[in-house]
Specification:
Distance between the termini: 65 Å
Helix content: 40-55%
Strand content: 15-25%
Structural class: alpha+beta
Mean pLDDT: 85
Low-confidence stretches: none
Number of helices: 5
Largest sheet: 3 strands, antiparallel
Number of strands: 5
Radius of gyration: 26 Å
Length: 199
Amino acid sequence: MKSTIIKLVLFAVIIFLGYMVYQSIMQPMDFLKEKKHREVEVVQRLKDIRNIQSYYKNAKGSYTGSFDSLISFLKVGEIPVVSVIPDPTDTTFTRTISDTLGYVKVSDSLFKARRNFVINDLRFIPYSEGAQFEMGAGEMDRGGVKVSVFEAKAPFKVYLKGMDSQRIMNLVASEEAIERFPGLKVGSLTEPSTDGNWE
């Protein structure tokens, strides 16, 4: 009877230890899986911001640091539809003739195929419970030329909210150790780049 109880206790301990080993393997994998899932939506939103900023700069001459201006432009802004044909009088085939055929709304040009796109949600970081992207714009001098720049970013701590806090702290520390932004961002206020740090 005593040996049966000992065997049952040992069996329970083995089951418990097996579960703990399984959890220690699965927790990091689950964290990375959820992180990647969330980052797909955050990256898409940052790409949307970059695309709209590009149209905004073409229309206004510089980027904006204001989501109100960006969203307003997206709602009412128009871009020309241009037809470019070779100049028939040019025998070198290097000159072209441009003709504006009309105008199309920026929102239709960029998001007509995206059924669930909500313009007013552009400013909000997915999974953040309403936190906004940090966005700024300005000018910098590059070889004596003024260059318009912008940046939009979402910190790990914001879009990974509700996940394992220790793992988030480790992520932040590892990025800061190599002097990188701890999160996702597009553009830069210190370099004339519109690249995302995930690219």
